[in-house]
Amino acid sequence: MSISLIEKLSNEIFYEIFEYLDGSEIYQAFSNLNHRFQQLINCSSLLFKFNHDSLILDNTYKQFLLNHEHQIVSFYMQNNDFFSTFSIDSSFYQLQSLYIDEISSSVLISLLGNLSSLPRLVSLTIDAQDSLKDFTEVYRLIFTLPKLKYIKCSGDEDDISISLPIATNEQLSTIEYFIINHHCAFDTLCTLISYTPQLCHLSLDDLSDCDSDNEIIFSVTLPNLTYLSIGSCNVTFENLEALIIESECNLKVLHVSFYYYYNVYFDDDPWEELIINYLPELKKLQLEYRHDIDPELGSSSNFKPPDQFNSLFWNKKKWVLEVEMCGMEYLYTIRSYEKRWYDVDPSNEISNSTRLKITFLPDDDYLMEFELMICDLLAAIKDDSNRYFRLLCFHIPTDDNVMIEKLKQMIIGEECLHGFTIDKQMQDHTQKVNMLVIIFSIIHKDLILYNKITESLQWIMDAMARVKMNDRNKEPPSLTSTSVGDSNVPTSTQPTENSN
C-alpha cells in the first residue's frame, strides 16, 4: 500500500496553498518545521499577508516579522506595545495595504510619518476610535503618501477637528477611494476633497452643516467621481446641490440618507431638475428619508402615504418609492427598482407603485392597541388621494391565532383590499418564536386587477430583512397560509423547485 506524504507535493502547490493562508498561520504551521519549508518561507517571491489580529507577540514571532519584512504585502496592526520594538520603515518596500487599529495618537502620527518611504503602499485603513479628536496632522500626512489610492479613516468622536488649508497644486494626492467614517462638517469636506482631484469614490458616514460662517470654497473639480454615499446627511439641499454642480462630477451611483427636518429632500421636483441637468449618467439612486413617529399622536394616526416620486420621469428611470415602519420611525426609500414576487408584467405601472412594509411594531404602553393601528392604516390607504399606495406587508413576532382572526375580520370590514394573505413562519427553531407575515394586495376602484399573484417562500425570506435564521443549513420551516378576498385572487401556493 502506497502512502502519500504532504512533503511530496511540489513547491508550486505549497505556494498556492500559502495564497489562502494568513502570514501568522504560515508562521505557526511551517516555521522551523524542516529545512525545505524554511527555504520556501525565505523565498523572496513569497509574499505574506498579515491581515488578522494575532495574539502571538513573543520575541520569536517579532523576529519572524523582522526577518521577512521585505516579503510583507499587507499588514494589520493593533497593539501599542508592539511598536516598542517594531516599526514600519522603507524595509517594507513590498507593503501595499496597511490596517491600523486603535493605537495611540502619538504612535499613529509617528507611524504615518514613516509611510511616505513606502513605494507600493496603495491602501490605508485607520480606525482611531476614541483615541484621537484632532485629525489635522493625520490627514496632512495621508495626503503626502505618494502612491495611495484608497483611504478609510474612522473615529468615534462627534467633535472631531480638522484644520487644513485649501490644497495647492504641489499638495495634490493620488487618492481615488475616500471613505470618511467619522463626523465631518461640510466646509471641512470641501477642504479635504481639494487634495483629491482624482477621486472616483466618496463615502461619508456623517455629514453636517458648516462649522463656521466663512464662505465655502469649491476649489477642485472631480470629473472622475462616479460614486457618492452619505450615511447621515445633515446639510441643506442647497449645499449638497452645490457640491454636485461645482465639482462637475459624473455620478453613476448616489446614496443619501437624511431626516424629516430637511423636508426639501423629499420634494421630487428639485431632485428631478438636478438629475436632468447635472447627473445624466446616474444609474443607481437611493434616497432614504427618516421620520420619527410622535408617541403623543400614535404610531399611525398621522400616517399619510406620500404622493411624491410617481411621475413619468421616475417611472422611466425605474426608481420606486417604498415605505417601512420600524418601531418609532418611518423610513421612506427611493431606490432602483428590483423585481418582486408580484411583478407579473414589469412594464405595468404596478411595478413602480408605493409599498409599505412594517418590520417591527412597538409594544410600549403609551402606543395605541394593535387593532386600532391596523384600522388607521387601512383607513389611510382607502383614501382616494393615496391611489399610488398598493402593497402592504407586515412581519411581526406573534403566536396568537386569536389575533390573526381579528386581523382578518378588520381587513374584511374595511372593504378597501381586493385580497390579502396571512402567513405564519417559524423564526427560531430553539425558542419556537413565530413570525407573522401579512401581505396585502391593495386594489383601488380605479385600478385593474393583476393578472396573477405568485407567492413564494423565497420572497418572504427576503422581505423579513431583519430576521436571521439560526441555522441556515436546516430545512426551511413549515409555512401555513390563509387567503381572503375576491374569488379572482389566487390563494397562496408553496414554491416549486424552480421558484425564485
From TrEMBL:
Ranges annotated as biased composition (Polar residues): 478-500
Q: Which InterPro entries match?
A: F-box_dom, LRR_dom_sf
* Renumbered residue ranges of the record's region Disordered: 472-500
Can you give the residue ranges of the F-box domain? 3-51
Q: What is this protein called?
A: F-box domain-containing protein
Q: Which organism is it from?
A: Adineta steineri
